């Protein structure tokens, strides 16, 4: 069946109305027999003043109030740009910063300005990790004085050196000494600490020589 402009007839039976009416509605909906040229005086099309048609052609002067439910204020205007990011404000990355980042090797770590090796004589002490600690140990008669403020360690001498083959310089002996002579000339010098030369006054013993004379 199809659309019938004469159905239902004015003198048709009431029982015939439902199926005829259903067919009329089907024809209107499915067969699109209704062809409205305008709606409120507006024709469909893509030009200014037309009812916009989605047919792949740009609709001229179409003013869409929302896009995906968002107001125009949610979108950037033409020519909108962001400032370059700084250490105190967000922004876009500059090409200079991008070049710097690309120049960082994979696995690179922060430069700690530290020594990886310490050479002591012919022995190399190597750091076992990037945060390894080198410990200075004071030996006998050595005192270490750390200065955390100035990052320094003062190495000093303390106490008495038990053995020394030779000493280029020495301020004093650790313990003052008494120097004495015996035999025909007897003399004693006490409290000799090596800080200066000493003179030992001698006394001639019973040697047969008198003062001012030489024994033959």
Automatic annotation (TrEMBL):
What is the protein name for this chain? Uncharacterized protein
State the species of origin: Pelosinus propionicus DSM 13327
State the taxonomy lineage.
Bacteria, Bacillati, Bacillota, Negativicutes, Selenomonadales
């Amino acid at each position: 069946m199809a659309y019938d402009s004469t159905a239902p007839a004015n003198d048709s039976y009431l029982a015939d109305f439902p199926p005829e009416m259903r067919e009329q509605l089907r024809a209107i909906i499915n067969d699109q027999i209704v062809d409205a040229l305008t709606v409120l005086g507006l024709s469909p099309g893509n030009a200014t003043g037309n009812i916009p048609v989605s047919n792949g052609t740009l609709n001229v002067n179409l003013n869409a109030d929302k896009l995906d439910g968002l107001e125009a204020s949610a979108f950037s205007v033409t020519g909108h740009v962001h400032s370059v990011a700084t250490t105190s404000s967000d922004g876009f990355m500059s090409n200079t910063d991008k070049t710097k980042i690309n120049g960082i090797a994979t696995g690179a770590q922060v430069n700690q300005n530290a020594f990886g090796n310490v050479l002591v004589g012919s022995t190399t002490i190597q750091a076992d990790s990037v945060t390894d600690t080198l410990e200075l140990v004071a030996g006998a008669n050595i005192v270490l004085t750390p200065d955390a403020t100035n990052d320094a360690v003062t190495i000093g001498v303390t106490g008495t050196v038990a053995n020394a083959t030779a000493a280029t310089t020495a301020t004093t002996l650790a313990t003052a000494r008494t120097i004495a002579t015996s035999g025909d000339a007897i003399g004693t010098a006490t409290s000799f600490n090596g800080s200066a030369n000493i003179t030992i006054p001698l006394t001639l013993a019973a040697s047969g020589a008198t003062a001012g004379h030489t024994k033959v």
